[in-house]
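name: query_chain
kind: protein
chains: 1
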Amino acid sequence: MKKIFVVCSICFCAFTSMSPKINAFGSGDKKFTSLLPSIKNEAPVVAKWIDSMYDAIHLDSFGLKKDIFYYACKGYEYLLSKNKLEKPSILTICDYSQSSSSKRLYVIDLNDGQLLFNTYVSHGKNSGGEYATSFSNSMNSHKSSLGFMITGDTYKGGNGYSMRLDGMEPGINDNVRDRDIVMHGSKYVNAKRADEGTTMGRSFGCPAVSYAEHKKIIDAIKDGSCFFIYADYKLYASASKILNANFEWPIAMQQTLPVGNTIN
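structure:
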C-alpha cells in the first residue's frame, strides 16, 4: 500500500449537464477522449484546485492522468450536490484505460489529500484481455460497466468479504446491483501475475482486487462513497451527462501547502 499525506480542504459547487442516453455498449476504441470537455475550459478556481490537489498527491507519479482525475472530481461533485454521498471524503477511481498489469485502482481521501490505496484491479472477462475495451450494462454480459457509482453495503459471498455497488448513470451502469457487480477479493489479481504480464481481466464484470488488500480497501470505501470506473471509450464519453457537465458558480477553495510525504 502506498500513502501520501497532504493537508487540504475542499469545497465544490453544483453543476448541470445534458447529453443523450444509451442502453448498452459494444466494442469500442481503446483511446478516445476528444468528445470530453477539458479542464482548460473550466473556471480558473476549479482548474486551480484540480491542479493543486493532483500535484500535491503526486498522482502523476502513480500513473493517473490529470484529465481522468478531473472527470472523477466532476462526478464526485455531482453526487455530492445531489446529497447522494454518505461518505463524502472518499473518491475511488478505477482507470481501465491502463493495462491490467498496472496499478490502476486509486482510493483518495479528499479531505486529507491522501492516496490511501493504489493497487491492481480486474475487469470483466468479456471486456478484453490486457486492456478493457468493451463494456455493458446488460445481464450476463460478463463485461465491466463504466461510470459513476456509489459504494454500498458489505456481505460474505462465494468470494468472501464483498461490497455492493449502485450505478448512478441510467442506461450506462444502473444495472450493476442486479448484475451482482461487486468489489471482492480474488486469487487472480496480484503483483506476481502483473509482473508476469498475465491478464487480470477474468471477472464477470466485477472490479476485484487482491485478497491481500480487499478487506482494507472495502472497509475504507464502503457505505456511500463515490466510485468511478473510467475508460477511453467514445460511447460513454458522448452519453454521460455527468462527464459532459461543467462546474458552475465556483467557490474559493482554501488550501494549505503539503507538510510532508511518506510512502509505504
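note: Strands lie at 15-16, 90-95, 105-109, 114-119, 147-157, 160-167, 182-186, 209-210, 226-230, 246-247.
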